[in-house]
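Fig. S4 source data, part A: sequence.
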Amino acid sequence: MRIVLVGPPGAGKGTQAAYLAKNLSIPHISTGDLFRANISQGTELGKQAKAFMDAGDLVPDEVTIAMAEDRLDQADAAEGFLLDGFPRNVNQAQALDAYLERNGISLDGVLDLEVPEAEVVKRIAGRRICRNRSAHVFHIEYKKPKVDGVCDECGGELYQRDDDTEATVRNRLEVYHRETEPIIDYYKRQDLVVTISALGPVPEVTQRAMDALRRTEE
């Protein structure tokens, strides 16, 4: 299957993408991974992206699109893929359509993870990260540490990242509504969008997503 995954920050896209890609035996291709891989490997595209990022600027669409197309050209994506974080706007969606058309393939579905805005704020603003190991993540409501402010795993101090504050989250949501949400309507016009609720335990959301994607094959 060839799938695009969309949803606001805090919808659990990364978590669901990993589970879905494994269940469907297709590569999970995320924009963040593309940037990191190209920068760490010192590719020409990576150098271009790093120059913009170091200057505090957004990476232009043409660089992001070129990275995505290069990744989609790799052998493991020949029979399917799950795109997470790309396309991020209508211009990128149009570029993806053009790439797919040139290669004689098409998307099977666009999975839209729906989460109420209040829940997004609660999920992200409530996160607390261990200063010793960033992989140790807790939540003031959903995954409380045994001792307030102390990591259960290593005893490190738990803190709130600057980009996890409520004000920052609301700004990220504004950017999502302005830049990314329009691609949902863009793909609805192609009858590709399936929308599911991303509320509830991770396995339940995954099953909901798998059921919705299977219906796109019928």
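Fig. S4 source data, part B ends here. Residues 27 and 103 are 18 Å apart (CA to CA).
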